[in-house]
Amino acid sequence: MATSHPPLSESRFRPRILQSVGIILSYQCTNVCRHCLYSCSPQASAWMSREVLMAIVDQLLQFRDHLRSIHLAGGEPFLRFEFLVEAVELLSKSHLPLAYVETNAYWATREDIARAKLEALRRAGLRAILISVSPFHLEQIPFERTERAVRLAEEVFGRWNVLLFTPEFYEHFKSLGIRGVLAFEEYRKLVPTAWLARLIRVNYQFVPNGRGAFRLAELFPSFPARQFFSSNCREELSYPGHVHIDLYGNYIGGLCAGISVGNGLQLSKLYNEGTELEGRPFLRGLVLDDLETLFRWAQ
User: Fold this and answer.
1) 204 within a domain of the structure (yes/no)
2) Which letter, b or e, does each residue of 86-121 get, where b requires 16 or more Cβ atoms within 10 Å of its Cβ?
3) Can you give the residue range of the structural domain that contains 262?
């Protein structure tokens, strides 16, 4: 299997073999968060089929020696909870390295409901959970649900198997005594803008893509397009450490939402033969040419 990049003169793009992968079960979510990389929303009603999920698992089994971790993502995976449990069971029985499931904790409305869901996932083979905590989620998820989910998850999975993204925001919300939801504009009044921008950019690892590129632009400096003309996105799109495969089988390199670099249901072909760039000027501009070429083409 090929692991190195082709020379720039070639017309095919081969990403590096994945090491960590997120399986996006759906782009449907309870929220319309202003930062969302994938512009998820309740209206995105399509979900991955069982057949596609099984095909992805079969592909990942071929590269298990390269894989360090897998996570299940959305959208909001808990929206179709029975399917989420099935996905956890399938990955666990396949002995693939399922690390965690991501969630915004909307479902933690009552103690009994929340505990039942967490225990069902643990029985299915889940060992850890990631709970999103940010000013963006706080606009739509009452903070007491987040606290309930965190507390019960620590009881079910153990404290060190509950990942908060991010713990800084979680502790800050607790220190403020927040109950219910809080508009982002109201939260901004409580903190220095520079502090918030740094926490979003560094700790939250905000990527200016998707909805966030438009809704959060005022928090960050902007630059003229020509400042990026000499670069391209080859390394980012080939990055093996945080690949995603979505419900349609799109292979998304790194955190480059909305850009499919190949077929995630044919990994051997993708890594060996690559994706043909002829007739794909957008992808070619990103990986073989430079951003000036892409800019001129777009004009």
Assistant:
1) yes
2) ebbebbeebebebbbbbbbbbbbeeeeebbebbebb
3) 15-298
